[in-house]
Structures are given as C-alpha cells and as structure tokens.
Amino acid sequence: MKNPGIKLLDENGKRLDGRGLKELRPITIKAGVLDRADGSCYLEWGGNKVLAGVYGPREVIPRHLADPLKARVVYRYNLAPFSVDERARPGPSRRSIEISKVSREALEKAIFLEEFPKTQIDVYVEVLEAEAGTRCAALTAASVALADAGIPMRDLVTACAAGKIEGKIALDLMKEEDNYGEADFPIAIMPRTKEIVLMQMDGNFTREELTEALETAINGAMQVYELQKKALKERYKIEGE
Ligand code: ADP
After folding, report:
1. Ligand 1 atom at minimum distance from 161 CA
2. Model confidence pLDDT, tens digit, residues 26-57
3. Which option is the CATH number for 27-235: 3.30.230.70, 3.40.190.10, 3.40.50.720, 3.40.640.10?
4. Which residues line ligand 1 (CB under 6 A)?
5. Does the predicted model carry a pTM greater than 0.85?
6. Would you place residue 3 in the very low, low, confident or very high pLDDT band (cuts 50, 70, 90)?
7. Could you tell me where the DSSP H helices lie in the chain?
8. For strand 195-199 and strand 168-171, is the pairing parallel, antiparallel, or unpaired?
9. Radius of gyration from C-alpha coordinates of the chain
10. How remote is the CA of residue 189 from the centroid of ligand 1, in Å?
C-alpha cells in the first residue's frame, strides 16, 4: 500500500472517480440468470463483474465427506484469467483458497445447515472482471444465488469494504485506492441483526479509525442489502402486480 505520489482525493475531497468519501460505486444485481443451476446471480459493482451459481442441497460425493448432522457447504471463488489486466494464472491460488474459505464460513452462519443433513450445497462464483472488492462482490452475489435456489437462510449475507485513503475513512475502495491507500477492511454481515460474519483487514487504523471504518462498512452493506432484496423481489415478481 505504498503511494508513489498519486493523489487519491482532490481539493474538494472528491475521489478519483468523483465519489464522496462515504459513497458506494454503482451496483446492479440480477437474480436467476442461469437456467441450469438451482440458483444464480449476476452482479456488477463498480468495475467488478461476478457470476454466482448454486447447486443443492444434493447428495455428497464422495459419501464419507457427508456430515450426518448438517449440510456441507462448498464455496469456490475463481478469478477468471481474463478478469485482470495481465492474464491471471488459471486455477486455484493461495489467495482464491483463502477467499473461498472465509466466504464459506460467512455463508455457513446464515444457512440453516441442520435442515439438510448428509447433503452438500455448492456455491461457485466466477469473477469475470476484477477492480478491487471482488470478495465482497462475490459473497454478496453468492447469497442472492442461495436465496434464488430456495435455500433457507436466517438472512442474506451482505459484504462491503471500507478503507483509508490519505488519512480519511472511505467506503468501498476502487483499484487505485486499494493499491495506494493505507487500509482496506472488508466485512460481511447478516443485515437484519447486523451480526458480523466476515472481517478482514489489510493496512493500519487507529482505534478511532477502526470504529469509523466499521460503521462506514456496515452503512454501505445496508445499502447493498436493499439492492439484493430488490433483485430477489424482481425475480419472483408476479406479472401484473
Ligand atoms: P479483493 O478483490 O477482494 O479486494 P484483493 O485485495 O486481494 O481482493 O485484490 C484487490 C484487487 O487486486 C482485485 O480486485 C483485483 O483487481 C486485483 N488482483 C487480485 N489478484 C490479481 C491477480 N492475480 N492479477 C492481477 N490483479 C489481481
């Protein structure tokens, strides 16, 4: 996070893409975009484009991996080779394995796993285009895809990051801010209770900044939650209503 003299805020406090400090990038969410998967979601968030597909609950193969008490969740985050400026190496990386693990753990908190013992729920998320914040975009799309698949959940999971640029707490960092800012702080919550199900941090904050960043990220997630619900309502809208 070294800044080689790049100004991330102008004299009016506006960011490189014209946003204010506490503004999200534009987000569009569409549920039910794939015919073959049980549930799906396409999401654009700033320059990120992600596609999530869900299968299940289904039989676990190999069977010895089945849990007699609850469903097993598989989450695969994949950065497509063409999603970044210089071709990303195809296949899993340390980064994608870590993102998959923490995202799976976040969704496990929301899904009523005990209702589906000995089964598996597969969540696949393809990042088609990446521009910082892909783990949040992927997880947000994944929870809409799970809802679209009719999987019972306590609540949706909604992710959003806050960060620090030029000493100021900012919502939803884009690429340059992620590269040259001082901190990035992605979280995921279950919005109805605001229970935190994922929290990571890269960079540094004072205690006061951390409190502000958490509040900023939660406020951002609550806005994203409205868009998730809207996408699901749109999907299941009854003609004429
Ligand atoms: P997140 O996408 O959740 O913010 P990171 O902070 O690890 O996760 O990555 C920030 C951004 O860096 C990504 O969104 C992407 O734009 C870029 N990036 C990540 N991995 C690669 C890669 N292998 N090659 C090029 N760019 C990458």
Report:
1. 4
2. 999 999 999 999 999 999 999 999 999 999 99
3. 3.30.230.70
4. 79, 84, 88, 95, 130-135, 175, 178, 184
5. yes
6. low
7. 94-110, 134-148, 175-180, 207-235
8. unpaired
9. 18
10. 22
